[in-house]
Write a structure and sequence with these properties.
The chain has 159 residues and is α+β, with helices and mostly antiparallel strands. 23% of the residues lie in helices and 33% in strands.
Length: 159
């Protein structure tokens, strides 16, 4: 900004206008894929775990980091958060949209339904193959797993 005094006045005005308002998570919006998420108010993985301990499904928005993506089509992703050990396996409603294959490491907000489900060995191996894991890693998958899953209507890739 060319006028530092005007900049200072704007900053002070913004700071004082927010006083007394409830603090909410600031979310920089980025690319929206799937259903539009116009007013994101995501929860954390810790909050999601607490809600799922009390009910079978949770309709929510979740903010987390992408750990892995289907390298065939971008038809699923795994989300992680440093606050919990468990990851969230995300699929997209009606197979209606896909995400970029190079999204690992990015932060996203997903909107949809979280739930737990047992995943078969065949399906786990299929996902490992899609992720580009070695034959040796895939052969080590011998037991079904109960997983935290999320059926997303929309995704925001955060800047």
């Amino acid at each position: 900004m060319k006028n530092p005094v005007l900049y200072l006045v704007l900053v002070i005005g913004l700071m004082t206008s927010c006083k007394g308002q409830q603090k909410s998570q600031s979310v920089p919006l980025g690319e929206n894929i799937g259903a539009t998420i116009s007013n994101p108010k995501p929860i954390t993985m810790t909050e999601l775990m607490g809600q799922l301990s009390q009910q079978d499904t949770v309709k929510t928005q979740l903010k987390a980091k992408v750990e892995g993506v289907c390298q065939v089509k971008g038809c699923w992703m795994n989300l992680v958060d440093n606050s919990v050990e468990e990851s969230v396996f995300v699929k997209f409603k009606d197979y209606g949209f896909f995400i970029p294959l190079d999204l690992a490491g990015s932060n996203v907000i997903v909107d949809g339904i979280a739930y737990r489900e047992v995943t078969s060995v065949d399906e786990l191996r299929h996902y490992a193959e899609d992720e580009g894991k070695s034959a040796e890693e895939i052969s080590k998958i011998t037991e079904p797993e109960e997983e935290l899953k999320f059926m997303a209507d929309g995704v925001i890739i955060l800047k």
